TrEMBL record:
Residues 169-236 form the Transglutaminase-like domain. InterPro entries: Bac_transglu_N, Papain-like_cys_pep_sf, Transglutaminase-like. It comes from Candidatus Agrococcus pullicola. This is Transglutaminase family protein. It comes from the Bacteria. SUPFAM superfamilies: Cysteine proteinases.
Length: 281
């Protein structure tokens, strides 16, 4: 068990003052299996009223608007989370059992449908089906497919952007965690395994000293359903452990961006982001 403190600052700087802006933030983790939120808070400048609710996928959303002219919008989310070892694979089910189970509930069917961001390239589908055909169980297939994607894609920051599609990143064999998660999800869904996009944070330093603050960033990984939901980090080829803090779920990144908004005004806006992560115990 470990305690992780996260300070995530983000927002927009406007080329010309925004007359008004309307925004949603998904930056606060919630208590769930494997993690307990001891403290969380979101500060918004300019100060404004806010509304909080859990969205369809169970992610905590803060919605707000700023109706006075402003040259900058800044959000600072601070959280202290106790992270515990996750319960891993449950009972093993067959392909036939999986096929029957996923048709009984919307939450499984919805995670079988590809989105624009996750549609896989044809050669990736062939690779995924070859792995699935040679696997005795869906669980074995899912683990092998996720590892294959993680080993195929080289993690390089700056070669993709927030709107890059899975098939584009797959062709170039380069990308970041968002791309690797999208590719993995597309491959799993292509062989009939429900898969979901998970957003959150990963402490980047496994051997960090208690009290040491390091520069971090938002992170993404996947969960697949093969009798139980099983989380895995294909970017780092590791199980979800005490360095991962989960914020939200979605079909793809579009369901869980940390900050989304529109503004009234002329000129452009520039997004800024910093993340600081501290191991407290």
């Amino acid at each position: 068990m470990s305690r992780i403190r996260i300070k995530h600052t983000t927002g927009y700087r406007y080329e010309a003052p925004a007359m008004a802006s309307y925004n949603e933030a998904r930056m606060l983790p919630v208590s769930s299996d494997g993690q307990f939120v001891i403290y969380s808070n979101l500060d918004i400048h300019p100060y404004t009223s806010m509304n909080q609710y859990d969205d369809y996928w169970g992610t905590r959303v803060t919605s707000f608007d700023v109706l006075n002219p402003h040259s900058e919008l800044q959000l600072t989310a601070e959280s202290l989370v106790e992270v515990r070892p996750r319960l891993m694979r449950g009972h093993v089910i067959s392909w036939e059992q999986l096929g029957k189970l996923v048709q009984r509930s919307t939450k499984y069917v919805e995670q079988l449908v590809q989105t624009d961001r996750t549609v896989p390239a044809d050669d990736l589908v062939e690779k995924a089906k070859e792995i699935a055909d040679g696997a005795d169980t869906p669980d074995e297939a899912a683990a092998a497919i996720a590892r294959m994607v993680g080993e195929e894609i080289e993690y390089i920051s700056g070669v993709t952007h927030v709107h890059t599609l899975a098939r584009e990143a797959w062709v170039n064999k380069k990308g970041v965690c968002q791309d690797i998660a999208h590719i993995t999800i597309g491959a799993l869904r292509a062989v009939g395994i429900p898969a979901i996009y998970v957003s959150g944070y990963l402490h980047p330093k496994p051997d960090a000293e208690v009290g040491e603050t390091v520069t971090g960033e938002s992170h993404a990984w996947v969960e697949w359903f093969t009798g139980d939901w099983f989380p895995w980090d294909p970017t780092n080829l590791i199980d979800i452990g005490e360095r991962h803090v989960r914020v939200g779920y979605g079909r793809d990144y579009n369901d869980v961006p940390p900050l989304r908004g529109v503004f009234a005004g002329s000129g452009k806006s520039e997004l800024f982001v910093t993340v600081e992560i501290t191991k407290e115990s």
